Batch of 4 targets.
Target 1
Amino acid sequence: MRRKRVLPPAVLVLCTAALAGTAPAIASPLAAPAAPASAAAAAPAATPAAPLRILLTNDDGYNAPGIRKAFERLTAAGYDVTIVAPLTNQSGTGTKLASAPAIAVQHPEPKVWAVDGTPGDSVSFGLAEVFGGRAPDLVVSGTNFGPNVAGLATHSGTVGGAVVALESGVPAIALSTGGLAVPDPAATVNAMGPTVDFAVRLIDRLRVRARSGPLLPKGVGLNVNHPVVGADGTGTAAGVAATFQDPQAPLRPDYTDSGDGTWKVNVQFRPQPPARGGDVEAVNAGRIAISPMNADWNTGPAESAVTSALIAGLRP
């Protein structure tokens, strides 16, 4: 049974008309409508809004190019950004949290913390210690090298870090760059620039619509996948699509018995035809896929009804 996310209609509004294109610039959330010249002289100076506080994490490691590009551009946009990310590459760790009695943490430079653990560990430590219990306005996880669409998202450390934030009641965005194809490393790294530029516009839009309230509905995050466009990756996406997580699992492990108690593992890439309206279809078409997500595994009312019918009459 494919996991379905039952989410508020407000999220769909954010993902569709509000994000209809990537090219037009979005007005700064701090800007106010222009006042008549006569009123402008008499109006008191507006109090500047406090910078948006962002915890930035990933699963590629605190010094990976994607998170560094994100840190640079989000900071340049006026956000107060702090990196709290894994010390080493933690791709594919999902929402895993360490159960060890101690965890090693480095603080190699201002605004940067490197946690010897998973993205979930990093977010957990960041919320409890780096932010001192005063939650940030937003957790951004990425941008990841490669896509987190379809079944890849379920096991992704990038998405996992965002989910741990959602579990703590903090709005979160997972950010990834790439599509379901063998990546060109240079083009993918180049495409991280447009990815983070779009993330700035998206966050600005969320802030405008939030009107000083939460950036997203409670318990809701966004999984954003940006395609690699053009031979060098610097092209502009064809548009933005509100999507869902495609139900396919494109990576299939194949096991061969070595005869000595071990099995050789060969992971095969077997993509299926993309689901209409899903994240794979959008990224394949060169569009930015934005899928709403939550931190639990609840399904919809239809599945609940089926379950009730299946267990009707059962006794301990």
Target 2
Amino acid sequence: MSDTPIQWIAAAIFAVALLHTFSAKQFERLSHRYPRHAGLFHLLGEVEVVFGFWAIVLVVVMALVGGGSAALDYAESRNYTEPLFVFVVMVIAASRPVLVTVMSMVDMVARLVPVRTSLAAAWLGLAAVPLLGSLITEPAAMTIAALMLAPRIFRPDVPEGVKYLALGVLFVNVSIGGTLTSYAAPPVLMVAATWQWDSAFMLATFGWKAALAVLVNATAAVWVLRSHLLALPAGPKRKAAADRVPPSVVAVHIALLAGVVLFAHHPVVFLGLFLMFLGFAQAYERYQSPLILKEALLVGFFLAGLVVLGGMQQWWLQPIVSGLSPVALFLGALGLTAITDNAALTYLGSLIVGISDDSKYMLVAGAVAGGGLTVIANAPNPAGVALLKRGFADETIGAGGLLLGAAVPTVVAAAAFMFL
């Protein structure tokens, strides 16, 4: 798997996958223009399908060039724990008992704040829930925040530019909001054990800075959105039955979610808990909404594809990461995160022998600050895209729109990590 031709081919396929990600919206438009092939264009227009599709292409090409056994060995050598975890945590976190409980708490807090409930609820969804990700993990926070904000912000009557700003704020805040602990943010998790960074260190070094940036971003976004939020009633209407979930059912769901988070790095355990969840949800179906299995599976497919494609990019990424000064490393990580998963970037940094403490900080700070720039920048982003894309034109989220929407909140996050 170290043959130079394979490496160059893998890099070329990775570049094509990136271009495909940025042009996914165009495939969706082609599906309307050529209805005979609408199914194919719609499939290629699904952002969550892109990296999984090109990962399959890579494995097929590797089989043709190096033999089927070598290609299969490479595919099986990848670690798919994160895609599996994101799939499981998305489904459980989006279940009606968990979602209604969190939304009820948010609504209760929103009513206590001396501003319109619609403004306060949106602010809590963009600020409090991303920070909660430091406890429940970023994918769970993204799922809950996206489902909470969808009826408030991501509506057909809200201008596209404003929605992209809100999406950018959400993605950036989730990316940096998980840095208050050492286990919730994938890019932090990749280096925490190697560099001996515990939760106390994260809170003192990154967490308080991230919290300030989250509050600034959320406040600015709600200010821009205020006219659209004030047009809402006191709170989005929900079915009365959704509010009548027995406490015992809620307790079981919360316990299973906590177990999945606790054993996030042990797929045998959290998949077993997930099977228990599916059985319990079926037994008490009257207290459930349809599970988001399709959306979660697509996100898992996306992340698994990124694992396969990203595993072949170390040969050119690591020399770049290891050859930069601390400040250049911060800016480089900020930019590179837009074209590769930030957890993969920090993992490569953890392999560098003798890296200075300043460089460690700058690498992780740049990686998490840039986590909202693209769909692939941070593992939870595909979950947000899957749950919110219906609120955008053509039911697709354009990569260019997201990049522009995330630009200002990314600058805020970067400034917090650089100057505070």
Target 3
Amino acid sequence: MRNIYKCVVCGTFTEDSTHCGKPAKLVINGELRNRLSHLMTYLLRHNPGAVGLSMDREGWVGINKLVNAIRTRWNPGAYSWLTTEHVLAVALMDPKGRFEVRDGMIRARYGHNKSLNVDIRYDVDNEVSVLYHGTTKEALTRIMREGIKPMNRKYVHLVLDLRDAYEVALRHGSDVVILKVNADCLRKSGQQVLIATDRVRLTSYVPPQCIESVINPRD
């Protein structure tokens, strides 16, 4: 991941080392950004209890509480450098919009584990017609028989862009395929299409008949 800087003139976080015609201040380098992003994702989506955090019904936790919990309870000493500014920079500059920040609070927008008592309200997308889901060839036979299930998450994650689907698939293996999903079919099957971010959509289940085609990225 790229470094994150902060403009010394307007205070904007940026990946450019110059902003508003001035050298920007380095906030966090790419290596630490990547490490912190993964940790924040893990804690806010899957296991806040790992650092003694509790979130409200909509998944919010105080940013200061998150910073203090990571500094003191997650591998103490490894994150002694962490400040609120680092968390804000990573959250606000996340390329996929995984995090949401509001009034000193932070939450993951989507991807929560089923075991968490979190209920986030999403807007419904009644317009998108085509969505994509990346997976492995190994899982393909089961999916074409049973559909796409959320497994240990609250929702199935679908994306609007083929490249995003490919990147997601590669997290699970190297021999991957991309499934093209008919969003109108989902709606007719009683499944809502929910807006998580401008790139990610959620649904409770994708029936096999709503999978239009299987795309081989190598083609």
Target 4
Amino acid sequence: MREDELLSLLPADVDLERATAWVRAEHAKSGYARSVPLNRDAMDVLERRLKTAVTYVFERPPSKTALPIKIGQIDDRDLRRACDAIGIKDFRFHDFRHTWASWHVQAGTPLMVLKELGGWETVEMVQKYAHLAQSHLAQYVSNVTFTARLEPEEETPPCGVALTA
């Protein structure tokens, strides 16, 4: 989910039984509501957050004198300090989304599936991750070969032209 989608998540938008969260249209970049299937990691986080959530899933806990406060955006200073502590440079919250998409492509998730999972409107937006996994090409590389068709004693293919790589 994008930062605003995540931080605007209401407890009512999470269905743990169906392992799904809902992005409301007013918080979606596309302007269209969508469902987000949740993996076990996300479920674990949401289960913990929902135990104390009052208004939003991700909110600062209430103080003795104030109500819970919606986390309006990720505090870049906190993220920067965390990255500095482990030696990561030039990292933004949105980079988590790119990392997630890259890992999906490397794990073999089809681009059309990733498009739906990430809420992108066009496959062109997802294709920037396609170069990360050429494994989808491996199954096709041997569809056409020349040398595999030669008999062991033949040195040139039947057309009389020697093939070299």
